[in-house]
Here is the input.
Amino acid sequence: MFDAWNDGALFVNYFGHGGLDRLASEGLLKGDDITTLRNSNKTPVVTAMTCLIGRFELPGFDCLAESLLLKEGGGAVAVWAPSGLALNERSEQLAKKFYNVIFEAQTNVLGDAIIEAMRYYHNAGLPSHVLRVFNFLGDPAMVLPGMNKWRNELPFAKWKRTVFTYEDIMMPWISGSAEDPDNDGLKNFVEYALGRHPKVIDTDSAIEIFDARLMGSSSYDVILKYVRDKYAQGTECRLEVSSDLINWDDGSGYITDVQTIDNGDGKTETVLFYIKNPDPEKGACFIRLKVVFLP
Ligand SMILES: [Ca+2]
Ligand SMILES: [Ca+2]
Here is the structure.
């Protein structure tokens, strides 16, 4: 192991027991051993899926993670390790997600990879304890060589990473734009556009319609109200009109006014379309809100 470390590696990953100053009770790697590391500037990122070796808050004592980081002429460039106890099974899940994010999604910023791994772990509904004990020591802005990242990632893809697990994202029949995994009638891109969750069933209607004439208005007939995500780029909500519920036409000419109200939640806004039928003589008029996806 020391030879491999000295030769240089991008990552060193460990699963197993660990204490404040050592990996494994047998002392596979101890604080004292670190002085013998001669890997110079070939310093790896260490992911220590173990216990305690990142207990940085103990005064007057360098835990193993600190010793690795502080070692001159070698050691590690960054250590992701727990400051307390962690169960192997959970840590393994977290590590898997981290390495998925690095090697499959090609994330190249270390801090981003850790946040993504934690997010995927959280989205998978796994126990949150490990998320609280694992700490990152190092520079989160560090760029890993050779990775591509989502440099040109579309906003919809970015959103998917915040609401789905990594496994979901690998399954397009769950996370594809036109899928509806929670079966609430809202396709994933509609959930995205309206600021809803693709895995939480929405039972309320996405739109509300008020009869403006009952409210004493003569300048418009109805008000259509809906809530959308302010940041859902690549989507558009359009009014469509029909006289027979079969053929739908652009209804923008029916909108006399639009009002947008920020909901103050940092995420959504409420939109009101004030609608007037320009030609009431033509008979029945139906309206609908069409969410268009323009990825
Ligand atoms: Ca849905
Ligand atoms: Ca939903």
Observations:
- The pocket of calcium ion (ligand 2) is lined by residues 182, 184, 186, 191, 196-198, 200-202 (CB under 6 Å).
